[in-house]
Write a structure and sequence with these properties.
By secondary structure, the chain is α/β, with parallel strands linked by helices. The protein has 6 helices and 5 strands, in the order H-E-E-H-E-H-E-H-E-H-H. It has helices spanning 20-35, 68-71, 87-95, 110-119, 154-160, 185-195, and strands at 39-49, 54-61, 78-81, 102-105, 124-127. The longest helix is centred in the N-terminal third of the chain and has 16 residues, at 20-35.
């Protein structure tokens, strides 16, 4: 990260947050996690550049479940990192919560990555990177459950924003009158014959 964007907060190629309110919201998430005992590591940049609405690209190591960071969508250069001992812990952790909009899986073992993919549900997944699946126009993007419903981008987006009209046309051109009340002896005989 330091090689790619040596000073994230001062680099003109790094995007700032959309407005001051969102900058303060994300800074508040990081400060809340720090105050509750999480380790905060700035990978690139220093602190907050309020004029450019940027904060350092930051990892928050092992934030508690009661932190604002873990209870809200972030939409900023902050990545919470939860430690684990066994992959099954990860899958159980993800599945015990609301479906995430994005799931980021890092690893070189294709079998382990595949276990995470098959064992969890998320709006979209990026492997060995973060959020890039949302930037590829040909991939459908959207959430599931609390993270949203429906897809946009690509062909799936076309389907989502199109209305397919259902039309049923009877091949008979009419419905036989014996299917409508009042029912009579003819229908009783037909049903008796079918049921025998």
């Amino acid at each position: 990260m330091a090689r790619m964007l040596p000073d994230y907060t001062a680099n003109p190629h790094a995007a700032g947050l959309i407005n001051e309110r969102h900058l303060e919201r994300v800074v508040g998430y990081v400060e809340d996690a720090r105050a509750r005992g999480a380790r905060v590591v700035e990978l690139s940049g220093r602190g907050v550049n309020r004029a450019a609405r940027k904060l350092a690209f930051t990892l928050v190591i092992d934030p508690g479940e009661d932190t604002a960071l873990m209870g809200n969508e972030i939409f900023g250069p902050v990545l919470p990192v939860k430690p684990y001992r066994a992959l099954e812990e990860v899958i159980e952790y993800i599945n015990a919560r609301e479906r995430p909009l994005g799931l980021y899986v890092y690893g070189r073992d294709a079998r382990l990555v595949e276990r995470v993919l098959k064992g969890t549900i998320a709006g979209g997944v990026s492997i060995n990177t973060a959020a890039v699946h949302a930037a590829v126009p040909s991939l459908p993007f959207g959430g599931i459950g609390m993270s949203g419903m429906g897809r946009h981008h690509g062909f799936e987006g076309f389907l989502a924003f199109s209305h397919q009209k259902s039309v049923f046309r009877s091949g008979l051109g009419f419905m036989p009158s014996l299917l409508y009340p009042p029912y009579g002896r003819t229908l009783d005989r037909i049903l008796d014959w079918i049921l025998k």
